[in-house]
Design a protein that fits this description.
The protein has about 625 residues and is an alpha+beta fold. Helices cover about 40% and strands about 15% of the residues. It has four domains: about 170 residues, Glutamine Phosphoribosylpyrophosphate, subunit 1, domain 1 (4-Layer Sandwich), CATH 3.60.20; about 210 residues, HUPs (Rossmann fold); about 90 residues, no CATH class; about 70 residues, no CATH class. The longest helix has 22 residues. InterPro entries: Asn_synthase, Rossmann-like_a/b/a_fold.
Length: about 625
């Protein structure tokens, strides 16, 4: 599912361009998918992304990688491909705006531009495809992967400051620039342009969507209705499922995957098979819920037992080969189970309910009280909504009011502890993603939703299952995300439960055992036993590893945390898994770079500082 785009200024760098294309083809990993004047696209894998030229009467102006749909049609509950005609004319930035505001999908678009202007690169707001860029010998390379060799960036090296930041805040692995110097990361919803790609124009951000929705709340129509949510999700599911002969759906037993499975069934496009993973602990066995959903969707359910496993270097190595440390591939049995289910039904696509917790708002329940007390819109009695939050969080109204007044999360609640830990990480290393900046006019609960949305970018990471099938997360596509951001948090999640708006929108379609469920699966005991079984490996791997040598981990702290007694009484799984994942990533990239072409900085895009932003575009885009 990877891609490489190469382009160069007219009349220059043609020899280097040809050498790069030839070497990539000769390696046997990449296949030439498209070539035109000043432009080449290569793809890899059995499920190569779609490649569509951006062309007109004057020839080829660029290329679009991925899938893209018409937004107006989706808003009507229908499906149509986006129109690309005319994108070759005029200013590429105007074409980017048209794509962002009039279409949606998982894509990256590039315009080769005039020689003096340089190329223009757009990454879609969902961030479904990784977009890394660099220049070498006047050739601009844009890719889903960090390459080495003739087409790779000069000056590629490990950025230890970013490694430390990722260690402090593992969620930043998916959000911040990769911890490699020499790469430029294009953020979702933004454009990089200019001769050296130093200019950045932000066209879309979650905060801008929230602010735009607030301006509409005073109007009679207000926020989207439950019927509009259902219609939009159904339309997105149909668009993403079209042309697939067989579809596998993961049914976890929770609300979000149930919505996707029954939406597929309602569309008549699937699912053709379903899979559920369960553990031996009662709280981690959701088969009864998953079976009810499968029965309602009319699909056979394949159940897979997941026993605790031992982490090894080979397990960690699978998540170390990408430009970003991958925390989404730490369970090899999960990948194996998905791949076996795909093989059994002949499917090449997997649908999930990933992102529903964020979009439907099953996060930071105490933040709802802050919004309610500060005047955020709600349905029904404000006092009653506050009482429901108090019962849900098992706290008094006075405690919630005090938190609102002081602006400090309570230490006496799980929500508060999570929010305090996040605040401490931000004080240590700053916001981990540009989406978490410029939040003026965004309520407290919506800020938590935006942070969770940024963290969900990890769902697009490189995994074994993603190399075997197209992974589809309908609840993280742009129309659905924008709808979730546009609905006030106290409306999304009212009552003593959570995700009430979505429950009501799909209530007649779902089994009552799902709509009435208030518990959630918990794999913490499973992970604890896995870590305990792997303690000897972690001890040797971390205490004498590269992170320890660089002074990035506290040997004494990890030695104590890996003692059997400590693993029983203190949950240090986050810190242990983060350190082990980064240790494997560092070892892989040090080994890979040691055999690459000698490091030479000339010609590379150099980003100063640990996470330095380029100069802002002089041509500010009006964000949506």
């Amino acid at each position: 599912m990877g891609y490489v785009i190469l382009t160069y200024p007219a009349g220059r760098a043609c020899e280097a361009f040809d050498e790069m294309v030839a070497e990539l083809q000769a390696a046997g990993t990449w296949t030439l998918a498209y070539r035109a004047f000043r432009l080449a696209v290569l793809t890899n894998g059995d499920l190569a992304p779609r490649v569509t030229p951006i062309a007109g009467y004057d020839g080829v102006a660029g290329v679009l990688i991925g899938r893209i749909f018409d937004r107006a049609t989706t808003d009507r509950g229908e499906v149509a491909a986006a129109r690309l005609d005319g994108l070759d004319q005029g200013d590429p930035l105007d074409a980017c705006r048209r794509l962002v505001f009039e279409s949606w999908g998982g894509y990256v678009a590039l315009w080769i531009g005039r020689p003096k202007d340089g190329p223009t690169i757009l990454r879609d707001p969902s961030g479904a495809l990784e977009v890394l860029a660099w220049r070498r010998d006047d050739v601009t390379v844009v890719s889903s992967h960090a390459l080495t060799g003739r087409a790779g960036p000069l000056g590629l090296s490990i950025n230890w400051a970013r490694v430390k930041r990722t260690l402090d805040d593992p969620t930043s692995a998916a959000m911040a620039p990769p911890p490699l110097t020499g790469l430029l990361s294009v953020e979702p919803g933004s454009v990089r342009h200019g001769p050296d790609l130093a200019e950045k124009t932000v066209l879309w951000s979650p905060a801008a969507v929230v602010r735009a929705a607030k301006s509409r709340e005073a109007k009679p129509r207000g926020w989207p209705s439950r019927q509009e949510m259902r219609q939009t999700i159904d339309a997105c599911v149909r668009a993403l499922a079209a042309d697939e002969a067989a579809i596998l759906c993961e049914i976890s037993g929770g609300l979000d995957s149930a919505i996707i499975a029954t939406s597929l069934a309602a569309s008549g496009l699937g699912p053709h098979a379903a899979v559920n993973f369960y553990r031996d602990q009662a709280e981690a066995d959701e088969r009864v819920y998953a079976q009810a959903v499968a029965d309602r969707a009319g699909v056979a359910l394949r159940t897979v037992r997941r026993p605790p496993f031992t982490v090894t270097q080979a397990v960690l190595q699978a998540g170390a080969i990408s430009a970003r440390p991958n925390f989404n591939g730490l369970d090899p049995g999960y990948d194996e189970g998905i791949i076996a289910a795909l093989d059994a039904c002949g499917a090449k696509v997997l649908f999930t309910g990933q992102g529903g917790d964020t979009v439907f708002f099953q996060i930071a329940a105490s933040a709802l009280a802050v919004d309610l007390l500060r005047g955020a819109p709600c349905e029904g009695s404000r006092l009653r909504r506050l009482e429901e939050v108090a019962r849900r969080t098992r706290r008094s109204l006075w405690s919630l009011a005090g938190e609102t007044i002081t602006g400090r999360p309570s230490r006496n609640s799980l929500d508060g502890q999570v929010l305090q830990a996040e605040a401490a990480r931000q004080r240590l290393s700053g916001p981990s993603h540009p989406w978490l900046l410029n939040l003026k006019g965004v309520s407290f609960a919506k800020r938590q939703q935006i942070a969770a949305l940024a963290a969900n970018l990890i769902a697009n990471g490189d995994t074994g299952r993603a190399r075997r099938a197209r992974i589809v997360h309908p609840l993280l596509c742009q129309p659905v995300v924008e709808m979730g951001l546009a609905i006030p948090a106290p409306v999304l999640s009212a009552g003593e439960g959570e995700r009430s708006f979505a429950r009501e929108a799909f209530g007649d379609r779902l089994p009552s055992i799902i709509t009435q469920r208030r518990s959630k699966g918990d794999v913490s005991v499973f992970m604890g036993r896995t870590l305990a079984a792997s303690a000897d490996f972690f001890r040797a791997f971390l205490l004498d590893g590269r992170l320890a040598t660089e002074g990035l981990v506290d040997r004494a702290w990890f030695e104590a945390a890996l003692e059997p007694e400590a693993m029983v009484w203190k949950d240090a799984s986050r810190e242990i898994l983060a350190a082990a994942t980064l240790e494997a990533w560092v070892r892989h990239w040090e080994g890979r770079l040691s055999t690459a072409t000698p490091d030479v900085r000339a010609g590379a895009i150099v980003v100063s500082g640990p996470d330095a932003d380029p100069k802002a575009s002089a041509r500010k885009a009006k964000a949506r």
